[in-house]
Write a structure and sequence with these properties.
The complex is a heterotrimer of chains A (288), B (280) and C (275).
Chain A: E1 3-12, E2 20-30, E3 35-39, H1 46-52, E4 61-66, E5 69-70, H2 78-84, E6 85-88, H3 92-95, H4 101-111, H5 116-130, H6 134-137, H7 147-159, E7 165-169, H8 177-194, E8 197-201, H9 205-211, E9 214-219, E10 222-228, H10 229-234, H11 236-241, H12 248-258, H13 270-287
Chain B: E1 3-14, E2 22-33, E3 37-41, H1 48-55, E4 63-68, E5 71-72, H2 79-85, E6 86-89, H3 102-112, H4 117-130, H5 146-158, E7 164-168, H6 176-193, E8 196-200, H7 204-207, E9 212-217, E10 220-225, H8 227-230, H9 234-239, H10 246-256, H11 268-279
Parallel strand pairs in B: 3-8, 3-9, 6-7, 7-8
Antiparallel strand pairs in B: 1-2, 1-4, 4-5, 9-10
Helix pairs in contact in B: 3-4, 3-5, 4-5, 5-6
Chain C: H1 24-40, H2 44-61, H3 65-70, H4 76-89, E1 97-101, E2 104-107, H5 108-134, H6 137-148, H7 158-187, H8 198-229, H9 248-270
Antiparallel strand pairs in C: 1-2
Classes of the chains: A alpha/beta (288), B alpha/beta (280), C mainly alpha (275).
Chain lengths: 288, 280, 275
């Protein structure tokens, strides 16, 4: 399901003394099955852009086409668009509101007015997908869940609507390393096994570097880079100049290069770094 | 080194005495030394936050004792003095700022101490200056980034002139830049103002800048020592589910490939230095 | 979906006008005085004078008139319902009946009563909004604290009350933003808040409050701990960083207000009330 953004601009608090334009003439398109990372400094407009992609924001200027449907079109079925483009919020506490896990996950399908058996079936499948045990957790109080479980319940609630696109807005914030790794693995699997398009917004460059195939960099409401992950992280100075923190591995490789090591730029994860450093050291040994 | 905080056989239960009581801390014996930066790390639910709340008597021990400069937190009359010695900054900056103007919020603590007006003004100015927040003086917290809000929260505690600041996962909600700036502030307060820092965190790139670290698991202290030596014990660390610093991960990988890199390297600078040695 | 856009009560719009620079105590007392006078205002000409006076104040403050009135927008449906109620339900024995339908009768007394109530609410709202638009929350509470100080002697915990207000005001915007996020999260899962009629929309809003309240309680709990950690033990023994001073401008403002008050009372007495 392709998404197309054409000349999109957006202002908050339009018509008040606090009016502020946050998006400027954005153009981009995301194809079916892609894994796209969106990065940018705090308040660069990432979230506002992302919320246009499932019609949570309706454009005033420019347009957003989701599977060819214009979200601005008065006749467009926004509810069905929102089911097809799922959105997982940064803080699961905003998203979870039913008393029990099962009821919360059923909320989306229930709004779709599906038959009861179908709803049950979807809840069971969604819980299995995210690794929440149906038997023990179906009736569990939402507030008795751990941080990581809450995130997974929130993702399950969105998956139960069977989305073709999943927008994930900084979903690992505040988790401990184990919880973070579990969520990232889950997202990778959703993409690989079910071919769900992933739009992954994150503040952690290390995460984005190791997850996304393509990266869109937003700064002050404008798209300033849109390229393959490796290409984006090779532009170290530009990223630095807009105040982004680079992946630690990228920084290390960069420093080694300036210390005279013969290494390719833009290693994205630890294993890659070990591989290229090993190769460089071996080559030097051979020369000696 | 002098002990600033000492816990002896500290045990604590949530919902103590009821059927569903939960063990949060069990037999914890640890110290915070004057002038150090101590990291406390461990998975969520490992008890680190519960432990930290004992340091300034927000919680009092179920069994055992906590001493702050020799003052036991159990006796109520010590509490005002203890809270003057130990300042505390929490995870969510929005839930700890009281006033709608930065400088007024920083004045909140000194006002509570009943200080004379000129001294409050002087302390607020000093705290703003020390953390480089002068320009934000009259802003509402609402207009600040999460990182700036957290810096304001630290300034509010700093204005009470504590000997020690406990930071309870202050970076959990911040972006990487806010995180780096917060760490820099903490180090600055330690090195320039001599304030003891206790930092609770999940991020290993913060832990490696601390003098000492404690790893908590299931309410007990699992490991304790300088970060360099802790990360040498890689099997134990792995079991607790912690990350490794990037330099340690790459160093380990290269060692497995047969290169001569010493274990216990946690800073990228040190890794680069030893790689340069290999090269020459 | 932007909820905070239409909230003007409690919003402060910084500025350097004569009104912005007044001592908060002057402004609070003035607002209180104007509101008390409003309760006695019962004639169209008196309302007209109030409208002119308040309009002049707004333009003097440099606040865009449209923005000052924006906060009324979400209240309009409620006001309309109130007006209709008065129109049909309020009666006097000698009232002229305009028309009647089944058991309902619309009378001229009802019309005037409806108008009176709507006008009062409108003015009340505009005056308080205007006060908060030109006075920062902090100076507002400083003013209140200073004004309420004498009441400590009769045992009123004025400092604690004001502290509660300070915190409540700080959290209004946070909670409004939170509400917006919760609504969006539910929209994302198929609730169409932006579709349907008034009643349908109202029914959909209820599930939103559970996470909002739980969030608010959690915040409150954390805030209490944080205040505790910063040695807050209530108003006793507290000192203040800032003290307030009244100046010439405040004296002038008082004179202007007295003149307005005198004129208004004269009009109230000498003109025929609406009902």
């Amino acid at each position: 399901m392709p998404i197309e953004v054409i000349n999109l601009s957006h202002s908050y608090k339009e018509g008040t003394p606090f009016e502020k334009q946050v998006l400027f003439d954005i153009n981009l398109s995301i194809g079916a099955g892609e894994f796209v990372g969106i990065i940018g400094p705090t308040r660069s407009g990432k979230t506002t852009l992302a919320q246009h992609l499932n019609a949570l924001h309706i454009p005033r200027q420019g347009k957003v086409l989701i599977d060819g449907l214009d979200t601005k079109d008065k006749q467009a079925d926004l509810v069905s668009i929102r089911h097809r483009v799922g959105y997982v919020f940064q803080n699961p506490d905003y998203q979870l509101f039913a008393p029990t896990v099962g009821e919360d996950i059923a909320f989306g399908p229930f709004n779709m007015k599906l038959p009861r058996e179908e709803i049950e079936d979807r809840v069971r499948k969604a819980m299995a997908q995210v690794g929440l045990d149906y038997k023990t957790l179906y009736n569990r109080d939402i507030f008795a869940l751990s941080g990581g479980q809450k995130r997974r319940a929130a993702i399950a609630g969105v998956l139960a609507c069977k989305p073709q696109v999943l927008v994930l807005d900084d979903v690992t914030a505040g988790l401990d390393p184990r919880g973070r790794e579990e969520i990232l693995t889950l997202i990778r699997e959703l993409h690989r096994r079910q071919n769900i398009t992933i739009i992954f917004i994150s503040n952690s460059m290390d995460e984005v570097a190791s997850m996304a195939e393509r990266i869109i960099v937003i700064n002050e409401g404008r798209v300033i880079m849109d390229d393959a992950t490796r290409e984006v992280f090779a532009r170290i100075e530009e990223l630095r100049s807009i105040g982004l923190q680079l992946p630690e591995v990228t920084v290390l490789i960069d420093k080694l290069r300036s210390a005279g090591f013969n290494l390719p730029a833009g290693a994205l994860n630890v294993n890659e770094a070990i591989r290229v450093i090993t190769a460089a050291l071996r080559e030097m040994e051979a020369r000696k | 080194m002098e002990k600033l905080i000492e816990t002896t056989n500290l045990t604590y239960f949530y919902r103590s005495g009821t059927k569903d009581q939960v063990k949060a801390l069990y037999n914890v014996n640890m110290n915070v030394f004057q002038g150090e930066i101590l990291a406390i790390t461990g998975q969520n639910g490992s008890g680190k936050s519960t432990l930290a709340r004992h340091f300034n008597a927000l919680l009092t021990p179920g069994q055992g004792e906590v001493f702050v400069k020799g003052l036991s937190t159990v006796s109520k009359e010590n509490i005002p003095e203890i809270r003057k010695i130990i300042g505390m900054v929490f995870q969510n900056p929005d839930n700890q700022l009281v006033s709608s103007i930065v400088e007024e919020d920083i004045a909140f603590g000194p006002e509570n101490l009943g200080l004379p007006q000129p001294e409050i003004i002087e302390r607020v100015n000093w705290a703003l200056h020390t953390l480089g927040l002068e320009e934000l003086r009259n802003e509402p917290p609402h207009n600040l980034s999460e990182g700036q809000k957290q810096q304001v929260a630290i300034a509010g505690v700093l204005a009470m002139k504590p000997e020690c600041i406990v930071l309870d996962e202050p970076t959990a909600h911040l972006d990487p830049r806010g995180r780096r700036e917060l760490l820099e502030s903490a180090i600055h307060l330690n090195r320039e103002e001599g304030i003891t820092i206790v930092l609770l965190t999940h991020f290993m790139n913060e832990v490696i800048h601390c003098d000492r670290m404690i790893v908590m698991e299931n309410g007990s202290v699992k490991m304790e020592g300088p970060p360099g030596s802790i990360f040498c014990r890689s099997k134990e660390v792995k079991k607790t589910g912690l990350d490794f610093p990037i330099a340690a991960q790459i160093g380990d990988g290269l060692r497995r490939e047969g290169f001569d890199i010493k274990p216990g390297i946690i800073h990228t600078e040190d890794l680069i230095a030893s790689l340069c040695q290999l090269k020459s | 979906m932007e909820l905070t856009k239409n909230i003007t009560l409690g919003v402060y719009l910084p500025g350097r006008s004569f009104i912005h620079n007044l001592d908060p105590r002057t402004k609070i007392l003035a607002a209180a005085g104007i509101i008390v006078l409003l309760l006695f205002t019962r004639s169209y000409s008196a309302f007209a004078l109030s409208a002119i006076f308040i309009g002049a104040l707004v333009s003097l403050s440099g606040i865009p008139t449209g923005y000052a009135l924006r906060g009324l927008k979400p209240m309009l449906p409620v006001l309309a319902i109130m007006w209709v109620f008065q129109l049909f339900l309020f009666k006097t024995p000698d009232a002229t009946v305009y028309f009647h339908w089944w058991i309902f009768e619309a009378t001229d007394a009802g019309l005037h009563m409806g108008n009176l109530i709507i006008l009062r609410v409108l003015f009340l709202f505009t005056v308080t909004t205007f006060l908060t638009l030109t006075t920062s929350v902090v100076s507002l509470t400083d003013g209140l604290e200073s004004l309420l100080k004498p009441l400590r002697m009769i045992g009123l915990p004025s400092q604690e009350l004001v502290m509660t207000l300070v915190i409540a005001l700080r959290f209004v915007l946070i909670l409004a933003e939170e509400l917006e996020k919760i609504i969006k999260a539910q929209m994302a899962r198929g609730v169409a808040f932006d579709r349907g009629n008034f009643i349908q929309k109202t029914r959909k809003i209820f599930p939103v409050f559970l996470p909002l309240f739980i969030g608010a309680f959690k915040r409150a709990e954390e805030l209490i701990v944080a205040m505790d950690a910063r040695s807050y033990t209530g108003g006793k023994g507290r000192t203040k960083m800032k003290t307030l001073h009244m100046g010439r401008a405040d004296f002038m403002a008082a004179l202007i207000l007295l003149a307005y008050g005198g004129l208004l009372i004269f009009i109230i007495i000498s003109t025929k009330p609406m009902i």
